[in-house]
């Protein structure tokens, strides 16, 4: 409970800090999400992408 | 938090009413049992007639389609067919070679520029070299004259004929279509292109071909003005792939798929992201709906008829 109340007092209590948290977490979430989507695409299409034929040359 | 997780995991049990009970309640309020016999007969007849008419119309429509003697191309297992499968870019590169050395003699590709090749099949330097191989009419210069200059990255693929009339005059009146969007513009897409390029054969008995026409069962009508263009070893691939006729057809079909849908790979990348995001949102929406409806679903309404 101690963690919950510190979290509440530090962030969720005020809109300003809440919005800041949303913006900061968006940055990390989107970066991770895009990278993982890209890595799925790359692993499915290994050997077929332009990056792969570029290496051969 | 633990309780919330427990409620989500318990899943189906959450706030569920018995479907059997609901059905009985609805049934008790139904008024169809009070209909007169005549009304029931009329409604049943109208229903049967409407269903019969619909089935007849469907059957007639199908029979018209069946009279159409068109050979549909078989579905081939393309390496890019599939929800998240990208184009085979080495195949696109070989397909460009085929287009440049074979198709481009008659077919234009006016919506594709050399800059579009960068990052798809060629590096920037290679694309520049490809563009520089042709001469473009540019101008006017200070004296008002048009002049010739080597191609640049921003130039579109050259047109083999000055205009449509010149193309028709050179091809027995048939116009070789622009190939930029041909895969999207033909039924069967890349399967059609592949089958057409490899499907030339002798005309069956009874089919009369005019001067300059060839027989291809995949071409609607059968008589096509394009001669078979792809044969084994008609060109030599840069990367040493054996240039059989079917390999050439497959590569050029993949290339034409790319020119028709340059956004193909990005679209499939986007699908992975959209599927991930929407499956997360679906879970949230499902939980939120159950949460908000708790009060309504657990409410009981008592109906007391007046004595």
From TrEMBL, chain A:
Pfam families: UCR_UQCRX_QCR9 (PF05365)
Protein name per UniProt: Complex III subunit 9
Keyword Transmembrane attached: yes
Signal peptide: none
Subunit structure of this chain's protein: Component of the ubiquinol-cytochrome c oxidoreductase (cytochrome b-c1 complex, complex III, CIII), a multisubunit enzyme composed of 3 respiratory subunits cytochrome b, cytochrome c1 and Rieske protein, 2 core protein subunits, and additional low-molecular weight protein subunits.
InterPro entries reported for this sequence: QCR9 (IPR008027), QCR9_sf (IPR036656)
Family to which the UniProt record says this protein belongs: Belongs to the UQCR10/QCR9 family.
Membrane topology per record: Single-pass membrane protein
Compartment(s) where it occurs, according to its Swiss-Prot or TrEMBL record: Mitochondrion inner membrane
Residue ranges of coiled coil: none
Function: Component of the ubiquinol-cytochrome c oxidoreductase, a multisubunit transmembrane complex that is part of the mitochondrial electron transport chain which drives oxidative phosphorylation. The complex plays an important role in the uptake of multiple carbon sources present in different host niches.
Automatic annotation (TrEMBL), chain B:
Subcellular location: Mitochondrion inner membrane
Chain ranges passing through the membrane: 41-60, 270-288
InterPro entries per UniProt: Cyt_c-like_dom, Cyt_c-like_dom_sf, Cyt_c1, Cyt_c1_TM_anchor_C
Domain Cytochrome c positions: 90-242
Keyword terms, alphabetized: Electron transport, Heme, Iron, Membrane, Metal-binding, Mitochondrion, Mitochondrion inner membrane, Respiratory chain, Transmembrane, Transmembrane helix, Transport
UniProt-listed Gene3D superfamilies: Cytochrome c-like domain, Cytochrome c1, transmembrane anchor, C-terminal
Keyword Metal-binding: yes
Top-rank taxon, per record: Eukaryota
Family the UniProt entry places it in: Belongs to the cytochrome c family.
Name of the protein described by the UniProt record: Cytochrome c1, heme protein, mitochondrial
Organism in which the protein naturally occurs: Nicrophorus vespilloides (Boreal carrion beetle)
């Amino acid at each position: 409970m101690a963690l919950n109340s510190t979290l509440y007092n530090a962030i969720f209590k005020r809109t300003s800090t809440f919005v800041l948290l949303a913006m900061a977490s968006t940055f990390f979430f989107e970066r991770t999400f895009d990278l993982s989507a890209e890595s799925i695409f790359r692993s499915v299409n290994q050997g077929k992408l332009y990056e792969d034929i570029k290496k051969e040359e | 938090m633990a309780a919330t997780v427990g409620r989500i995991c318990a899943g189906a049990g959450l706030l569920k009413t018995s479907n059997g009970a609901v059905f009985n309640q609805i049934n008790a309020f139904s008024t169809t049992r009070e209909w007169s016999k005549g009304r029931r007969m009329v409604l049943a007849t109208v229903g049967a007639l409407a269903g019969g008419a619909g089935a007849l119309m469907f059957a007639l429509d199908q029979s018209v389609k069946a009279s159409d003697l068109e050979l549909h191309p078989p579905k081939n297992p393309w390496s890019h067919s599939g929800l998240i499968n990208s184009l085979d870019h080495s195949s696109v590169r070989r397909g460009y070679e085929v287009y440049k050395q074979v198709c481009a003699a008659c077919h234009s590709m006016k919506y594709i520029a050399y800059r579009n090749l960068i990052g798809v099949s060629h590096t920037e330097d290679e694309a520049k070299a490809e563009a520089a191989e042709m001469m473009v009419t540019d101008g006017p210069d200070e004296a008002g004259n048009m002049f010739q200059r080597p191609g640049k990255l921003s130039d579109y693929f050259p047109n083999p004929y000055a205009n449509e009339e010149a193309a028709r005059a050179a091809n027995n009146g048939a116009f070789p279509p622009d190939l930029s969007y041909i895969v999207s513009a033909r039924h069967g897409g890349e399967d059609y292109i592949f089958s057409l390029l490899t499907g030339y054969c002798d005309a069956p008995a009874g089919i009369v071909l005019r001067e300059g026409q060839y027989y291809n069962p995949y071409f609607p009508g059968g008589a096509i003005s394009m001669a078979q263009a792809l044969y084994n070893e008609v060109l030599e691939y840069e990367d040493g792939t054996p240039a059989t006729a079917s390999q050439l057809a497959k590569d050029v079909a993949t290339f034409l798929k790319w020119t028709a849908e340059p956004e193909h790979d990005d679209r499939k990348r986007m699908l992975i992201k959209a599927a991930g995001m929407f499956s997360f949102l679906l879970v949230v929406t499902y939980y939120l709906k159950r949460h908000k409806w708790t009060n309504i679903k657990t409410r009981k309404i008592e109906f007391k008829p007046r004595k």
